[in-house]
Amino acid sequence: MKPILLLIIAISSFLSLYSQNETGIRALNYNYSGVREEALTYQQIFPIIRNIPPVDTIMPIEVKNAYLVVDSLAKLLTTETAIAFIKNLQPDSDTMKYIIKYLYLLQEYDYIRFEQYLTEVKYNNSGKYRLNLSEILYPIIMKMYKSNDSQKYRRLSLIDCGIILKGVVVKIDSMKPPIWYRSDSDSGKYIYYNLTLNILDSLKGTILPMTVHNTLKNKEKIQSFSYPTFNVEFGEGALPQTTEYWGAENSPFRLVDFTMLDQHKRMLRFRLGDTAIIFLNNVETMSNREYDYIRLCLNNFYGYPVFPVRNGLVRDVNRIWSNDEFTPYETWKNTFNNVKNSIKGFGE
Asked: Is the Cβ–Cβ distance between 169 and 274 less than 8 Å?
């Protein structure tokens, strides 16, 4: 396996010299997803990436190599071929573990850059890509779900989330839901909130983004990261999905932490001063020729989206990350890091 990867890296290192978007503006001849101001609430705005693949001299060599491998495969394989290949893999095979490792490395280093890269490949820069990388993420998750590994639910939570943080809530803003969730018949039915957090610990995420509100009116505020404040959107959809994705009998998340629900038991509730571990994902990217607009929300698919931390204890009602309902944070974090390191360290 390693000689093949080294060959791909060597070839793609040469090809990457000719994979620059020096203008920083996408081509005119593509129908980009329409950016409508009324559809944007708390999206973050980022200039499109110029280097494709988005490698630079300061990123860790293993992250750079991961991008070079993925970029080469995206040029060589079609989407259909890649999906068929993943479906034929054994869930616990070495090849599958390499795929998970590289995916995790790219997400962890700079999740926004990774999401922007997926978007750039989707827009098929100059027609050189044959593989839509976004479409193979779901088959990878499904293959992981079939694993016999005793750690699989923890691994799924790590891979299915782009950013994982421990933070304390310092501000709560109510907001209108995205426009496509609203209509005259259900006006007021959906409620969305935006949390402002002071980051206490970054569990997954080396480079983190700064939220820019009302993005179309504040392009001059584009930055990469403003520590330690972070914003996250959530609404009714942030509730753990105990049946829709897993089936009632198969869900590892049968129990809901009712101390984190509102009085109607239909959505998460936060108070000022709450400390929690949150799992975040980009749920939507909208783009134009110069910018990508990204929505970071509490993840609710193949993992529990939030774990409250009270008096130094993490509450895990489903005991996914611990054997007890309440676990000291440092003990919880050690378990988390052990799983993370087992993914990152495969093959070394």
From this structure: yes
Same domain? For 116 and 152 the reply is yes
Q: What are phi and psi of 178, to 5 degrees?
A: -50, 145
Per-residue pLDDT, 301: 66
- Say whether pTM exceeds 0.70: yes
Q: How confident is the model at residue 86 (pLDDT cuts 50, 70, 90)?
A: very high
DSSP code of residue 295: E
Domain annotation covers residue 66:
yes
Boundary residue ending a domain (159, 192, 221): 159
Pick the last residue of a domain from 136, 159, 182: 159
Residue ranges making up the domain that contains 245 = 163-344
Do 277 and 231 form a contact (C-beta atoms < 8 A)?
no
Q: How far is CA 198 from the centre of its chain?
A: 19
pLDDT tens per residue, range 146-186: 999 989 889 988 998 899 999 998 888 776 555 544 444 44
Q: Which residue has 């827009």 as its token pair? A: 123
